[in-house]
Amino acid sequence: MSSAQHGGVAVFLTGLSGAGKSTIADALVAELEAGGRPVTVLDGDVVRTHLSSELSFSREDRDLNIRRIGFVAGEVVKHGGTVVVAAIAPYERAREEARALVERHGRFLLVHLATPLAVCEARDVKGLYARARAGALPGFTGIDDPYEPPVSPEVVLDTSVTPLAESVARIRAAMDGPPAGREPAGRVRPWTA
User: Fold this and answer.
1) How far apart are CA 19 and CA 124, in angstroms?
2) CB of 117 closer than 8 Å to CB of 46
3) How many domains does the chain have?
4) CA gap 166, 158 in Å, rounded
5) φ and ψ at residue 5, rounded to 5 degrees
6) Distance between start and end Cα atoms, the chain
7) What is the CA radius of gyration of the chain?
8) CATH code of the domain covering residue 92
9) For residue 89, what are the contacts with CB-CB under 8 A and spacing of at least 6?
10) With a threshold of 0.70, does the pTM exceed it?
11) What is the pLDDT of residues 156-166, one digit of tens each?
């Protein structure tokens, strides 16, 4: 059964900066659109620029930003659309609030990119982690502000060991299959065809 038969669906990619959210989102969107499915993309940085520019990086403002993303994603899903969200979304409560806003109208798939911090730092071409470690970016997620791993995501991927094509395939399998139970924290769901 395809996700189109399930109605709208939101794929919410969460993980540290450099975990691979945008890379996977771009590949997933390209595959979906090549198959004739229009997709709305909600990139955390773009949303922050256009819908949440007045917000700081305090916990309260980060939570509000994720609730706004959840609301917009829910509106897309309500009308049968597909939305791919790529946002750090560091706090469990805010992610679950976004889930609730979407699940009023359709499916929500939380994808935790559990890429190790050391790998994310090594990938950091903008030097954000180095600046954070030097104290120039206070409150940087993963350095001096926590990233709370999701308690029970639908999909867990470590992009340091899972190739891009396999990551997209696993997300597509979750989208196209029947709604499944969520995985407990820290457990990577085994891949089966």
Assistant:
1) 10
2) no
3) 1
4) 11
5) -75, -15
6) 14
7) 16
8) 3.40.50.300
9) 12, 14, 44, 66, 69, 95, 98
10) yes
11) 999 999 999 99
